[in-house]
Each structure stands twice: as structure tokens, then as C-alpha cells.
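Researcher: Predict the fold of Type 1 glutamine amidotransferase domain-containing protein.
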Amino acid sequence: MKKVLFVLTSHSELGNTGEKTGFWIEEFAAPYYELADKGVIIDIASPLGGQPPIDPKSSDPSAATEDTKRFDKDVELQAKLSTTHKLSDVNESDYDAVFYPGGHGPLWDLAEDKNSIALIEAFYNSKKPVAFVCHSPAALKNVKVNGEFLVKGKKLTGFSNTEEEAVGLTNVVPFLLEDALQTNGATYSKVGDWQPYAVEDGLLITGQNPASSKLVAEKLLIQLNSKK
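Model: C-alpha cells for Type 1 glutamine amidotransferase domain-containing protein follow.
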């Protein structure tokens, strides 16, 4: 049985707007079910442990998908989500891969979280897949391997500047993800706003936006199944 760690944000404040943020339900639910339905065991962790904040906009009916509707009725998964492990208590050696769902929260906490940074480095150095979608590639911002940014020279994607502009948060977020990844040497690519798009470069798997979350999980599953 393969075992995957999901890492969620603990950050709930949308800058100084007075609004709330957190993780995006679709980006958690779609990959979770894609993997769990295929027999993958999943643990969930967050920097503070316990219930991670859900971006209220992601539970709006306009953002609903089959996976989010399934999540809304899934009492068992909701209970599991309310008791996430503390990031400082999890160990890379217990898992075959790590997956980071997005939402705006990771731009604030996971981008700077030392436990998260060390965890990604450990997975990557142990030749295990590391997967991210939408805003969660922000968690790669300060990750280094052999003294260089992990993303340097890597093909990847993530929430685009035009998508950030479309949601009106260009001047609210602490940094623009597309720009930050390129500043660290990544070969960033994207497709049209809100279109499904995922990029695989060795162990690194990234998706552009919520519509890309299942694609990332599918690519991750292929990598997991290819390992003995």
C-alpha cells in the first residue's frame, strides 16, 4: 500500500483585507479522492495541526464540482480533516510522496515554514515525488537542494499572474507566485486562465489552478505505481 502525506495551510487571514482565506476545497478533495479511491493511504498535516482553515469562497456553489459535493457529504473525511497532524511531528520516511493543495494561505505560511521546507527537501533528496497545485508551489519558494533553489532549471507551473489579477488580489498577496518561481530560476509555463494544466519534471509535479488538481493527482499516481 502506498502512503501519501497531504500538507495544508494553517493561515486564515487574506492579507489586511479583513477577509478570510485558507485552503481551496477542490484542490484538496479532487486529489484526495483520486488517490484514496485507488487504495492510497493518506495522512493530513498542517503547520499548526488540527482543523485547517477553508477558504470560504471555495465552498460557494459557483466553485462546486462533483468532488466538492462528495466532500460536503463525507463526514468521515471532514472528521479526519479536523484533526490534522502537526507538521513538526511528521517524518518523510513514513511516506512515498507528498502533495500540497493550494488556496491563498500557503503564500503566507508554507512559503516560509521551516518544517515544510525541510520536509520537501527530505522527500526530494529521498527520490520521492513532490506534488503541488495552484498557489501551493509557494511552498517551494525557499526550498534548496545542494545549495540551489529546487525549482532552478525545472519546468513547472502554478497560479498565474493573470489569474491573480482576475480574482483581484494582485496587490493583496505577499508575492506573485509566477514571478517568484521565475526569480528562483524556474522554467514557468501556463495555459489560458482556469484551464487544466499540469507539468511533470522528474519528481516535481505542479498544476496551474483548481481545474488542474485531478491532473496532478493522476501524474502522482503514475509515479507511485512505477515504484516497487
